[in-house]
Amino acid sequence: MRLLLQKFKPVGGFSQILHIILLVILPIVVFVLVRLGFVQLALSMVVLSKWRMIAVRPRFWPANIRANAVDLMVGLSIVLFMSHSSSILLQLVWTLLYASWLLFIKPASGLFMTSVQAFIGQLFGLTALYLVWADGPSFGLTLMTGLICFLAARHFLDSFDEPYARMLSYYWGYFGAAVGWLLSHWLLYYQTVAQPTLILSTLGYGLAVIYYLDHKDRLSNMARRQIIFIMIAIVVVVLVFSDWGDKAL
Questions:
Q1: Looking at residue 249, what is its pLDDT?
Q2: How far is CA 218 from CA 86, 130, 204, 206, 212, in A?
Q3: b/e string for 75-95 if b means 16 or more Cβ within 10 A?
Q4: Which pTM does this prediction carry?
């Protein structure tokens, strides 16, 4: 506990102290609200916990919102996962995972941990989207899928000081939207994971690993071929062995 408090030692006065307290109690409050059936209030608590995003001049809001987008996606997704969990034990597991995210994963810096944050944000965001909005309009699924992919890619690329981060993020967001639009017409699930989530997570993780290794000058031709082969193999298996028979456009 002492090391944890040192890690989050307040440097900004009362607002920083309040922020630390909120980090500690937020998962507990969210758990209690979900147990009481106030899911919307729990979602609101996650959003309100990011009040410091707009506690600056309005011209800084877009940058702050983009910088905190992955954290918001993870928090909102975990609340939705809690609300769809069938047992209190599973809800407690999600509570512990949320606390771990807030206290250890989110504050971590460095290229590797930032990459992990981006991957978790996209995975959780897409999973939650297709979990709660499976019957939503195709346009909405397409838009939200593209937005989640864009924000996760921007979080990932910005940590590398990539000069084309914005353009590459738009490309990945557009690709994600295209996959979401196409597969929303034949929406299939593997347990609770939708097919677009599985495909985009596989491709996103593979491309991120290639980019990361190349940035570290550790990407050999053999490693590149192996990663690409694994990506293609997983996607082909998913597409070929899916039950398309009773799905209509």
A1: 39
A2: 44, 36, 19, 15, 9
A3: bbbbbbbbbbeeeeeebeebb
A4: 0.89
